[in-house]
């Protein structure tokens, strides 16, 4: 079957894709890639397996990178506003990624969208002219390689469904297929079908108030920093990677920012930076899981007190608390730690400590840039915001020593 884009290009005998069509397509691609971000951020909090959380962290950043590549190209094309031109039917497809009724439906739903995006990118690549469309071809090729890798992960997860989960997921993906058909497919060029009236589930996704884990990971506490520094080398190393694993709390703060700020008046670059920051924190938690496994220890706990304590604050305060409060507070520990593991000849541990130190510098920069941006027409300064946060946190951490921002 010749699909609509191919038929269009062939009917005009143009042997490539004109600017207007390229713009229409790229706008739709970036919309769907972008719509996956709040969906994955919300479900990151909800899925109980930490391995799935890590995988979603990687996937979320990949969506942001692909959306960014399409958007950067759109800037160079006679394209008009990149977000003001989304048709409601496509918007419904984007929303449905988030509003899956349960985890199997969410995973199967995103898997379907990825498959359909992949097919669209493949077809676009096939009809693009090697010279006239060379820039789009590079973007599509890179996106496809990335997408295929992501799809393989969703395939593995959905292949492991129980018969009951499979049945529920199938009902949900039929609905998504219908939504896509009503929007003329990913390209918008297919013949549009009537939307069936019945949505198979009535509930809308509400992000959990806290970060959920399965029974392997319990709520617990960690020793304060000074106490940790007095442990033996081996004990300290394990203790430090437990703290790395606990960076799930920082990733979760970013997930709530990505999710809650979605409707805020913010430039795309903000979401792009937050997606990067989120992924970094997911990787830091992964450092913990990886190194603990290498040291023969299973991660068994998280301390979510800083996450839970910040949850009633607006996203601006959460961002300020994490980047200009906590990350600045932890920073003096970073360089000595890199040096310490280097001197001990443990370059494997040093690798993780070194990368972490490097990433944290970027996070503080993101914080300064975006807190300043959101305070632009505000009578408050960063310091005022920090006072508000301190006041709020004092009520939660009544027993924290003066000058300490974190119990660990
Ligand atoms: Fe971190
Ligand atoms: Fe960080």
Structurally, the number of domains stands at 2
**What share of the residues lie within helices?**
55-70%
- The backbone outline, from C-alpha atoms, is globular
> How large, in whole angstroms, is the Cα Rg?
23 Å
By DSSP, the count of extended strands is: 2
Mean pLDDT: 95
> Which fold name is given in CATH as the topology of the largest domain?
Ferritin
- CATH class descriptor name of the largest domain: Mainly Alpha
Number of helices: 16
- Order of SSEs: HHHHHHHEHHHHEHHHHH
Proportion of residues in extended strands: under 5%
Structural class: mainly alpha
Largest sheet data: 2 strands, parallel
Which ligands are bound?
Answer: fe (ii) ion
